[in-house]
Amino acid sequence: MPVGTVLSIYITPEPGGKTRGVPSVNAVPGMGLEGDRYFGLPGTGHKRSGSGREVTLIEIEALEALEREEGLHLTPDEARRNLVTQGVSLNDLVGRDFQVGNVCLHGIRLCEPCNHLAGMTDARVLPGLTHRGGLRAEILTAGQISTGDPIRITPSAQP
Q1: CB–CB of 55/82 below 8 Å?
Q2: How far is the CA of 68 from the CAs of 42, 44, 59, 62, in angstroms?
Q3: Which domain holds residue 89?
Q4: What is the pLDDT at residue 14?
Q5: Nearest in space to 54 (alpha carbons), one of 74, 37, 72
Q6: Is the pLDDT at 47 greater than 60, yes or no?
Q7: What would the pLDDT profile of 1-11 be if each residue is shown by its tens digit?
Q8: Is the pTM of this model over 0.70?
Q9: If I label 113, which of 24, 59, 74, 125 is the partner at 20 to 30 A Cα–Cα?
């Protein structure tokens, strides 16, 4: 049973570049999302070494709360995360396997807001998105992720 949905997908080929919405994207294990600035092997191009750098997700509900609580309207593309979701608690997916459409992902750690994001948007993102700035995940199986795809927790990963 789906627990959430992919509302939109964003990539940009250059660090600091404006993200653009796409209807779908190819996910490649160990590499990331084709066409995104962090696509490639860890330590090459713009991709730093370390886990959790293949795909980022954020809840639309977090952006709505940011506007409600901080008075800051941050559009999904300005959040600079790859996948904007609805109806799923991303914090609950840390350490768990889950599916986005037919692609299996593994939640690595929270994607906390950083000074780079604050510099590109507004300093209020730091307190406003703390502990709800999204999720960093690794791609376990190759495939295409599309807007409207369901998000499901992998049954073996459920408590």
Answers
A1: yes
A2: 37, 39, 15, 10
A3: 4-157
A4: 82
A5: 37
A6: no
A7: 678 999 999 99
A8: yes
A9: 24
